[in-house]
Design goal:
Layout: H1 3-17, H2 23-27, E1 28-34, H3 42-51, E2 58-67, E3 70-78, E4 85-94, E5 97-107, H4 131-147, E6 164-165, H5 173-186, E7 191-202, E8 205-214, E9 217-228, E10 231-238
Parallel strand pairs: 1-5, 6-10
Antiparallel strand pairs: 2-3, 3-4, 4-5, 7-8, 8-9, 9-10
C-alpha cells in the first residue's frame, strides 16, 4: 500500500467510519482546504461535518486510486439524506495528513439502463506499468471526443468488443452510448466539457475531473474509466450540478 493511500484510508476510517471528530486533529493539516459544497473550509469545517454525522451514516467504499500525493475514493454514502449518495472524493496528502479535498456526489439512481449499479464491477488496480499510457489515452479521449467532438475517431479509444456502462442513463457498448447521446440531442440537451481540471491515474483506472454544463446547468463531470489492452472498456461517473457561489459555505473553487 502506498504512503498516501495508507494515510487517506486510515483517516477516512476514523473520520467517517468511527465518526470520531477528534481525528481531525490527527489527520487534517491546520490549513486544510475544502472544495466540497457540503462543508466549510479548514479543519474546523471538517470537524463540524464529522460531528454532525448521525447514527445511520456509513460509507461503502468501492475503489481507491492513488496518483502520487493524490488519492481518489469511489463509493456510496448512506445516511447523509433520504437517498444514498454515490460518487467520488479526492484527497491531497501533505506531510502525512489530509491537506485538501474535492468531491462529486449525486443521489443513487433507482434503476440503470445497463442493469449495472453505479459502483459495481472490477475494483482491483492492475497493470501498474500501463499507468502513463492509460492516462494519455483517456486524456486524449476527453480532449478529442468529449471536448473536440471528433466522434468518428471514438473507436480509437473505446473498445468495440466490450464497453460496460454504469451511468444510469446509458446502456452498454457503443450502441448504448450512441442511443443516449441521440436522446439527449432530441431533448435539446448539450453535454459540454469546457475545462479538464484533474486526471488521476493508477494502472487500469483513470479518473478525470472536468467542468462544463449539461443542458443549461453548470455541471461537474467526474468520469472514471477502466482501460484494458489500450482501449476503454468500462465507465463510471458522477455529474452533479454546480451550485451557485452563495450556496457554497466557502470561497474556494469546487475544482
Amino acid at each position: 500500500m502506498s504512503y498516501a493511500k495508507d494515510i487517506v484510508l486510515q483517516a477516512a476510517g476514523e473520520l467517517f467510519g468511527d465518526k470520531d471528530a477528534t481525528a481531525v486533529d490527527r489527520w487534517a493539516t491546520p490549513d486544510y482546504r475544502q472544495h466540497s459544497a457540503m462543508a466549510a473550509d479548514g479543519a474546523e469545517g471538517l470537524r463540524v461535518l464529522v460531528s454532525a454525522l448521525g447514527p445511520d451514516f456509513r460509507y461503502e467504499p468501492a475503489r481507491v486510486i492513488t496518483d502520487g500525493d493524490t488519492v481518489a475514493l469511489h463509493g456510496t454514502y448512506r445516511g447523509f439524506g433520504p437517498k444514498p449518495l454515490v460518487g467520488f472524493d479526492i484527497f491531497r496528502v501533505q506531510d502525512g495528513k489530509l491537506a485538501e479535498h474535492w468531491d462529486a456526489l449525486q443521489p443513487q439512481a433507482d434503476t440503470t439502463v445497463s442493469g449495472r449499479s453505479e459502483t459495481d464491477g472490477p475494483t482491483e488496480v492492475d497493470a501498474l506499468d500501463q499507468t502513463e499510457p492509460n492516462r494519455a489515452l483517456v486524456t486524449a479521449f476527453v480532449q478529442n471526443i468529449l471536448q473536440g467532438g471528433k466522434v468518428d475517431t471514438i473507436t480509437d479509444y473505446i473498445s468495440t468488443e466490450r464497453y460496460h456502462q454504469h451511468n444510469p442513463l446509458i446502456g452498454d457498448g457503443l450502441e448504448g452510448l450512441g442511443a443516449a447521446l441521440a436522446a439527449f440531442a432530441e431533448q435539446g440537451i448539450d453535454m459540454v466539457y469546457d475545462t479538464v481540471h484533474k486526471v488521476v491515474a493508477e494502472g487500469s483506472f483513470v479518473l478525470t475531473v472536468s467542468e462544463g454544463r449539461l443542458g443549461s446547468a453548470p455541471t461537474a463531470f467526474y468520469d472514471l474509466f477502466r482501460v484494458e489492452n489500450g482501449k476503454i472498456v468500462e465507465h463510471w461517473d458522477a455529474t452533479p450540478p454546480i451550485p451557485a457561489p452563495d450556496a457554497v459555505p466557502h470561497s474556494n473553487s469546487l475544482f
